[in-house]
Amino acid sequence: MRRHHYFLIWLILCLALLSVPGANAQYNTRLTPNETLSSQHIWSDQNGYYYANLDAGSWTVVVKSDGFWGMSLAVAVRDADTSEVIAATEGSGGGSVSLEFTLEENTIVNILVEETGSGSGFYSIGVYNGLNAVAATYGVWLIIVPVLVFVSIGVIVYRVKSGGKAADNQELQVEAPEFAVPERYRQREKTTDIRTMRLPAKCPSCGASLSQKDIDWVGPLEAECNYCGAIVKARLERL
Questions:
Q1: Where would I find the beta strands (DSSP E) of 10-46?
Q2: For position 118, what pLDDT does the model report?
Q3: What is the signed CA dihedral for 102, 38, 119, 61, rounded to 10 degrees?
Q4: Domains within the chain, CATH numbers bracketed
Q5: Quick one: DSSP state of residue 202?
Q6: The dihedral sign for the CA sequence 217, 223, 228, 229
Q7: Is the pLDDT score of 12 beyond 80?
Q8: Contact 172/214 with Cβ under 8 angstroms?
Q9: What is the pTM of this model?
Q10: What was the pLDDT predicted at 92?
Q11: Going along the chain, which residue ranges are E strands?
Q12: What is the per-residue pLDDT for 141?
């Protein structure tokens, strides 16, 4: 009678272990947070078992395999103490899958990678948080491309502003009356063309484009803008 009693206890324990998925599995491969474990191999209808010691917060398991292998992968995350499912992918995710989950406290989790199809091959796996999860899921190009866009915009803005400054520095060549020439230069030889002067192409005050007819000379090296009445300074073309 006592033997039957022990046998029933042993049978109940075996059934209890079999009823908990993964209870008898060996989760003996450690995943370091935010580091990728490469060159992992799996056969068809087999599983990969991993564990990770994670802090509280949001995490993402990323499993990637080249399409060459033709694998169909699924991922499940369980609490290492209770075997309670924290998160699992729905159906097969193909050769590359990602699974997000949140921990309310520091926990050791078990991660199951399952090949649900008839394929076999190599894959990489990691568990990430923050920007590391974004980079691992979508690749570093997701970060590089926005940076390149912002840099390009900055270059364009700089060139536009530089071009505007260059336009502002352009000058207009005009002929000035004799009284617009400073007294100390009027005694130069007649062969020296001192009446050719340069004015800003745009009025520094109102920004209007200037020409010979848009100004009135009011004194030595000084002309008046006919648009706003501001005094525009001139300089001699040749001294």
A1: 29-30, 37-42
A2: 83
A3: 10
A4: 24-143 (2.60.120.380), 170-236 (no CATH)
A5: B
A6: negative
A7: no
A8: no
A9: 0.53
A10: 64
A11: 29-30, 37-42, 47-54, 57-64, 73-79, 85-88, 96-103, 107-115, 121-128, 171-175, 196-200, 215-219, 222-225, 231-233, 235-236
A12: 63
